[in-house]
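Incident review: delayed structure delivery

Summary: a single-chain prediction request sat in the queue longer than the usual turnaround. Root cause was a stuck worker, restarted by the on-call engineer. No data loss occurred. The affected request and its eventual output are reproduced below so the record is complete for anyone auditing the incident later.

Affected input:
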Amino acid sequence: MAENFPGRFARALYNGLIALIGAYGLSVFGFLILRAMVGESLVVIATFNSFAHLLYLPALILLPLCLLLGRVRVALLLVPAVAAFLLTYGQSFLPRTVPAPDQTFSILTYNLKSQTVNLEKLTAVIEAADADIVALQELSEAAADHLATVFAEAYPHQALHPQPGEPIPGQGVLSRYPITADEYWRIYLGHQRITLTLEDQPVALYNSHPIHPFVSRYGFEWRAEEISTLLQRADAETMPVLIAGDFNMSDQSEDYAHITTRYQDSYRQVGWGLGFTFPNLFDENASLVQQFGFAGGVPPLARLDYVFHDDYFQSVEAQVWPDAGGSDHRPVYVVLGRKD
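Output delivered after worker restart:
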């Protein structure tokens, strides 16, 4: 007896979905091969590399599903994506024991989204985190004046560089530790270097904000230029180095690899999970919600905000702060100690 139309339609739909799954697995495998061969020399590879972490995620569900359906050959096409995810992020989901040094300090890196109003929400986030050092990006003049006043006692050492009429390049640091030197420079966006005294030990802290790669066809080159300049400065230091900020890069990018060949990613060392910080759409007060009318329910999809350190330090704790205070970035809170 001939199969009826609903049955034929269901079978065609099923076969089509299986074909799409196979095409997805083959595409990710092809991307991984091309990335290994040419890296980010091709803009299309650099672009997909910015979202590679999202490319892997569907395979985590689709591979066991294909095995349950008996589609072993299709499942094999998904193995490269699953393997890439596990090799990159697997350790972030495993329990880890971190010995705590005798003396620790905390640092918060926080992109303020150039906010000039509702500054009390930003203040509340900084107060709740209670970090010893706060590295700020996209610091507006209004926010700088507000924070300088509110935190005059809690953070007596301040180095704030709002840029008149241009809040996005604005950088700043609030610190409980003495700041003995401060320098601000700008290539495309703003960067800052300060010298802190931590328990009689001078430390160089770089507060960095490289340009987003999607601002123009040259965006990836511009971001790489800023990070290269940052690393040249940091590598020349004769004192311990901390690097914090919004880097506008994923942990799959070549720029991330260039940094982590020299410095350690605190969240990768001791944080749990993927550590996504952008965009913040859960908070009903978030600027993107107010501007575009999002109703929430969309989690952050990328990790753009980092704290790096050299071998002088040991990562003890790292977490994405749950409250963004109206910014589109969630802050990253890190506890560090001196490595024995």
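Verification: The domain at 100-338 is CATH 3.60.10.10 (Deoxyribonuclease I; Chain A).
Action items: add queue-age alerting; document worker restart procedure.
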